[in-house]
Amino acid sequence: MKEYSTPHPKNFCGCGYPDWLEVNLTSQCNGRCSWCVERRGWHPRNKADWATIVQAAIDTGRQNIILLGGEPTLHPDIGKIVEHIRKAGRNPWITTNGSLLSSKWVLDNLVGIEGINISIHHYDLSKNEKITGIQLQEDVLQDAISSIHILGKSVRLNCNCIRSYIDSETEVHQYIEWAKKISADNVRFAELKFSDEEFVDLANILDHKHGTNDDPYHKGCTIDTEINGMQVNFRQMCGMQTSKRPCPTMPKIMSHQVLYYDGQIYDGWQQKGEKNMTNKELKALLELVAKGKIHINDAANLIKTDPDIPAKDPGTVVSGGSCHY
To answer: Which residues is 156 bridged to in the sheet?
Structure first.
């Protein structure tokens, strides 16, 4: 009998980040990123008030609470949420596309933040606008970063590597130099999930330097390093997130808690129409993926076959199924 395959212990699915709570604060977003997983995700019909969401987050006991979406800065009570998470002795973090950031907005809404991630996918902001639909001004962005530093907190830039944009070692280095110019503290370069046409293989373009590898599931999908004086993180995708790499056979992954804007805690990020499969069905499906007989995206769709599933019962992440990190 085959045994389950265990991920690298520092991976998200290997429980490498146990003290984080992810919060889907809103389904609203003013961007149009083509690869967006959450656009196709499940969205609750009910919306809890900000105080209910904060209390639910605190009740999990997690120290680090990261506000996501959608675009979390669009939540009308974002300032109150950050403030009251901090007052409860927890660390609020936020990931944003940067569209609302300005010096004034930061000081009006993010006092108490522990750190901020700004998703910008090209150092040429006109190209970033083509990717995201978000128009950013470099001087306004720099002023916002300065205000975050005044608060004594750090700024990380998140860059998804996209074919024809950030798709070479030279482009990676140019992005790092731009990040230094606008005073970011560190940068994350990530491969895309479920986007074959735009996928950039970090191990390939970096010639396997900095710890990048061809088997992120077993060798580690997140790597910290330093390049040209900048702290850099590389986030690679394994075969549960891209067809560009073999899917691990019978993966044994750890689920994690996600708080949705309905005030409810779920096991991982929910998908529209998702349902539980039996262990036998799941095992057979994964073996087909591993043998290359079925595309991983098609396998994911087979797990989500019921589009009329009630909003109050979205289903849970399939244990050992696909990666929801």
So the answer is: 117, 186
Domain 20-272: CATH superfamily, name plus number? Aldolase class I (3.20.20.70)
Token pair belonging to 123: 């150092």
Q: Which helix (H) or strand (E) holds 218?
A: helix 216-219
Angle 82-231-210 (CA atoms, 0-180°, nearest 5)? Answer: 130
> Which amino acid does the sequence have at 49?
D
Name the nearest CA neighbour of 64 among 81, 34, 85.
85
Q: What are the boundaries of each domain within the chain? A: 20-272
Residue in the block written with tokens 């690679």: 236
The model's pLDDT over 79-104, given as tens digits with 9 standing for 90+, comes to: 999 999 999 999 999 999 999 999 99
* Beta carbons of 245 and 200 less than 8 angstroms apart: no
**Distance from C-alpha of 202 to C-alpha of 321, rounded to nearest angstrom:** 24
**Hey, what are 257's tokens?**
């808690």
- Enclosing H/E stretch for 176: helix 169-181
Model pTM above 0.90: no
Tokens 């779920």 belong to which residue?
266
d(CA 59, CA 321): 28
DSSP assignment of 263-302, as one string?
Answer: S-EEES--BTT-----HHHHHHHHHHHHTTSS-HHHHHHH
Closest listed residue to residue 322, CA positions, set 258, 273, 255, 266 = 255
Q: Which contiguous run of DSSP H or E holds residue 173?
A: helix 169-181
Instruction: List, for residues 49-87, the tens digit of each pLDDT value.
Output: 999 999 999 999 999 999 999 999 999 999 999 999 999
Give the C-alpha distances (Å, rounded to integers) separating 30 from 78, 165, 322, 324.
16, 21, 28, 23
DSSP 8-class letter at 162: B
